[in-house]
Structures
1.
Amino acid sequence: MGSEGMSLSGKLAVITGSTSGIGLGIARELARAGADVVLNSYTNAAADRELAAGIAAEFGVSARYLQADMANGADCRALIAKSGGCDILVNNAGIQHVAPIERFPDDSWNRILAVNLSAAFHTCAAALPFMRQRGWGRIINVASAHGLRASPFKSAYVAAKHGLVGLTKTVALETAEEEITCNAICPGYVLSPLVEAQIPEQMQAHGMDRETVIREVMLARQPSRRFAEVGQIGAAAVFLCSPAAGQITGTTISIDGGWTAQ
Ligand code: NAD
């Protein structure tokens, strides 16, 4: 089975944290493949709704924006309920805080665990009945190279992303006999707006030009010395939704330029 049947026409995809960066990239690729999409963030800005309108116009699919705070379990479940269905669930919303563990603020720990891990528990629980009703489903959790490897000063992020990989395996086992799969994509450094914004600060901090700071500082652990692109993460998500990926479940797909080969 190859790329035939790649059309996701008639499927509804809900992508959390999808008004920027990787989530938006995944939403665009799923829409390009024909899926109707629900975009989400907690901001509820006019620009969020315009993004959805833009995707609808560009790809000829239905695209909506729904506000929900992924730090709040009830909001997570309400997002799925308000979507009115969910064939493809992409748990992408994620936040970061960097500090040594003894100075790591409690509220940052709690919020990172809530958004990066617990949100996926709530959305999976809410989405699975819809998937079972339709006899088909795809759950894609956006973890990280930090779901497989650690770095200092990122205790909450690393713990949450490792937890998300564990949740991925568990949900895969609970759905293994059905036409439902659950996998994690583990990106290395991706040039999202979040990362782009760090480049000038890093250039100043290290007194380096853009190319040098990217290569020697930011991508020091990414052997390709190139960022992954949001479209590449989106293409992997589309593949996981294809018939060819029907037996891929409970695993991780690294898109990290060789980071985890080390
Ligand atoms: P980003 O900041 O560009 O996008 C994050 C999105 O999540 C935004 O749309 C934001 O509005 C939304 N969001 C944040 N908190 C939310 C909340 N409480 N409720 C709802 N939405 C919320 O970041 P990104 O770089 O695109 O990251 C997306 C995902 O990819 C995250 O889970 C991140 O951990 C993961 N990731 C990113 C990289 C990278 O290098 N950029 C690498 C590995 C993994």
2.
Amino acid sequence: MESEVKRIFIKSTGSYLPEGVITNQDVAKLIHTSDEWIKTRTGVEERRRALPDQAASDLALEASKKAMKEAGVTAEDLDLIVMATITPDTHCPAGANWLEAKLGAARAVSFDVTAACSGFIFGLSVAEKFMKVDGQRYVLVAASEVMTRVQDWTDRKNCILWGDGAGAVVLSTEPGGHEVVATHLHTDGEGGKTLLMPGGGSATTPITHESVDEKRHTLKMLRGNESFRVAVNRFAESCLEAVEGQGISLSDVKLIIPHQANLRIIQAFAKKLGVSMERVVVNINKYGNISSATVPIALDEAAHSGRIEKGEWVILVAFGGGLTWGSALIRW
Ligand code: UT7
């Protein structure tokens, strides 16, 4: 029987950043670069690093526990767990299965969503649709990445960008939270070849000494400049699409919370849209690019720093490998 559920709410948010800090000065000990270059070209000042025994599900666990505590939701209450990640603990079981076990969420169904830096928005959209069809009452959407572990620390055009961390939200069908009004998702498989992790999948298995020596298991950004330009356009288009047909315009939106890929990308798309940077959340200076986890971490920080008041409009927006991009419009 089709569910009667029409509205989905974010009940709470949580995030977790591991304690280890890698400064630009630390990076400059590994490769020929400087704090000045990294700050000017990317906005990153430092990034976090997970402990050797912390995998993606461990970071997600901490973020999820915070969100669940705030929502007053226990592990037994969870019906569904969606985890966005491109750095799962293992490819099988899925990262979400590990998280389910660590939470003790025995009733929940759990699975991963893979959409690189847009992963959280894809996960949110999938969860929202599940809830509208099947009527699940409490759903956890987590995004978690250990990006420092998939870097080629000799690739100076890329390794400077990335960090580790996790964010999570509890969704509910109960009114009273922050409504997920609309989500929009897009992909372009043809464009995906410029931002990829070639090793570890069936195209390169079995993993050989040779594939490891060639660092095929690490993240490659082949034409960063090109990606940069595409990203600016996709971010801008997605923000416009988020408000389209909703009876509001961008000037009614209190806060845009973008994926933190590069400060210059964020500034460029905000300028293109004529949106002042005061209405755009930036934390790339502290954490770098944490792929799927940047959006829920920035959302959690904005929510808990009093930057959003009840009833205000918020856009979550991301672009990443795949290529993938999309938005979520939230009524806070
Ligand atoms: O999250 C998913 C989406 N992310 C993206 O789409 C990322 C988009 N791309 C970017 O953020 C930027 O393109 C990068 C940060 C990856 C690179 O910045 P850029 O301003 O595009 O630099 P570039 O690759 O054009 O390189 C400019 C110069 C080059 O020197 P020459 O050839 O002009 O002499 C590089 O060799 O900067 C040099 N360079 C560096 N110098 C010092 C590149 N990396 C470094 C470095 N330190 N780390």
